[in-house]
């Protein structure tokens, strides 16, 4: 395939198309607006959405996500961006397909480390604090992503704030309070939300300022990494090393997963 051929990337959200369509429509518009020339994004969700926050819901959604990623490869997509900061099922998904699979959390945290020496992230809920610390260790970023704080909002509250200016201002205050505390107490130089909901909610807010630090949009950073991953895969002929961590799953293993959730 030509290195300059058009690129199709699936954005696999963990929100429900039936319940969160306003968010998904806005997300599709945002992606279309920031995509590089020749790159198109398609947004798909999961039903039911990841609203029962916790490890069990992450596991269930990750299985559905992997099935969707397998289907995306079969449909001819060039890559998948898993639009869920927790990156549930990310490593497993990479073993199941021969296209790049980019994790929202992994990609944005690594990219943020190129913007400043000390990075902090703000989650939507305390339930994710242990998960984010595990991600940081898994990605080898303990000395760079140095602080994790949280707001306390539900995904539904975040989605509702798209049409509720007062609701957005309340969420924005929670984010900035947590972010400024990290700057003051941990010397953080770059702050970003741990997820796409607030990232999209605040994407056009030019007043999202901190004293002594920058606010980075994790979705924008992850999109750029996804586009780059396609270029790298086309140049090298492989999306990842198959030597160990991402050793290719057998076709039977992939089919068994699809059968498990009735997608075969």
UniProtKB/TrEMBL annotation:
Pfam families: Asp_Glu_race. InterPro entries: Asp/Glu/hydantoin_racemase, Hydantoin_racemase-like, Iso_Racemase_Enz_sf. GO terms for molecular function: amino-acid racemase activity. Belongs to the HyuE racemase family. PANTHER family: PROTEIN DCG1 (PTHR28047:SF5). This is Hydantoin racemase. It comes from Rhodococcus pyridinivorans KG-16.
